[in-house]
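In the previous chapter we treated chains in isolation. Here, by contrast, the input contains two separate entities that must be folded as one system, with a combined length of 587 residues.
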Amino acid sequence: MAKEWFRLTAHEIRDAVLGGAVSAEEVTRSFLSRIEQVDSKVCAYVDVWRDAAISRAREIDARIRKEGFRGALAGVPISIKDVLCTKQGYTTCCSKILRGYRSPFDATVVERLWEAGAIFLGKTNMDEFAMGSSTENSAVQLTRNPWNLDYVPGGSSGGSAASVAADEAACSLGSDTGGSIRQPAACCGCVGLKPTYGRVSRYGLVAFASSLDQIGPFTKDVEDCALMLGTIAGRDPRDSTSVDLPVPDYCQALNKDIKGLRVGMPREYFTEALGGEVREKIEEAIRSLEKLGAEVVEVRLPHTEYAIAVYYIICTAEASANLARFDGVRYGYRSPRATDMRQMYHLSRSEGFGPEVRRRIILGTYVLSSGYYDAYYLKAQKVRSLIRQDFVKAFEMCDVIVTPTSPTPAFRIGEKTDDPLQMYLSDIYTISVNLAAIPGLSMPCGFTKGGLPVGLQLLGKHFDEMTLLRVADAYEKNRGFDIGHPPIN
Amino acid sequence: MPKLTVKDVEYVAELAHLTLDGATKERLAQELGSILEYMDKLNELDTSQVEPMMHALEMTNIFRCDEVQPSLSRDVALQNAPKTDGEYFLVPKILDTE
């Protein structure tokens, strides 16, 4: 029987490929047959680039042989969320309005992975325009949680998370505006990182809420997370909000102890509302950190209860502005029924956008409209300042903050689609992080009795991904269980 | 009084260039009404002395030299156009000249 290369982590694959133990082509074929075997059940991919992946793998093998190529991700098969622009294939944000769209350029992150020797397997499913927490808002298909096919994979990057969890990709790239990397990572049992705002270039990321969006990796372990972040981070002249700070070698964060490190537990996050198995698992994880020598301190984030309101004002306002570009003129869907300009705009947008996107555009337009701007948008921007200050103050008392990623494990498909407010409230632990622009990492900390993964979230100071990775790696190596593989074949 | 009327939804939809059917307008008025009611929570806070957070990071202006850089060719820029004559994006008539 052929070796199951698709089970391995990115660093294991790279070492095997560079060490001559296996060719990039064999690894890639192993992933492609895995996709063929399980993706009809998981439905993580909206497009698989079979032929291109194989010829790319051959190119990498030839470069290793002829030029001594030593890329940090040489031969590593990776999937990409459909919100990132790729010259290859289509870039649709899983929306009807962008069906058939071919990007004339690659996102900066895609270029950087390519230069490092990655092999792209295809594009993954997502909530339309990254708006959602379950991937049920995709205009293309439903993605299922590999740990239990009746459950959602989380969202909006549900396809990316599911592809890594189901061993259909070694790593993936997603985007996170209010938890869209960390929450699906928690639901699917992988490691997901939202870097500090400005750490990674957003060039080529189709914009949802520009002051909150950040691109980050999904991986099977913390070492791969460090590897991916090191590859995609850094200043890019094409994104003026990317920051000109040196990119450290994130792998230096690995295999370090955490003695004396202060771990903050926000009182507002551990209220009676957080119950059941999620609380149990998080508290167990905190005890593990204590055993490793960390000191647990209570911190306060007093404006937590306002975060969801602030978030849904700011993100819808920014979305309504960003999505104004879809007008049926230069690209995307144009309604065949339109006979004049006004109709062309109205019909193209109304037929092209799905219900959740329309809902958010209307809400965002409302909070920005004359007479309401001060009451909603400006007010939200002010409270956003208070939320950021909360974190700055909390980090005077501690080095990292530990929280659940989500108040519950993955929910059943169809369980929450009727009530948008209910769906928004499940983002409580992740959205403050985007508002404060700090980095956040989710990693598995156990399973419920029903066999669904639970996510532990670690939050760091601005641009201190190093400490996050250090704590995450120490915990991963000492958490006392193996995440294993979902029971899907 | 409801937080958001069907008329409000119609007005905002027009601003956003969206056409909604009657049932959708009713549903949105109700859903968005309860979301906006939830957002009124922010009024509990006195923010008269708080500066709005206008940027995610404290950054100064980023400048670059005003030099011509390579950009998309016309063919590539037009490749996704719903309708084009090879030189321009074509759209329905804006003004009725007859």
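The helical segments of chain B are 6-15, 22-39, 74-78. The CA atoms of residues 82 and 89 of chain B lie 8 Å apart. Compare these points with the single-chain example from earlier in the chapter.
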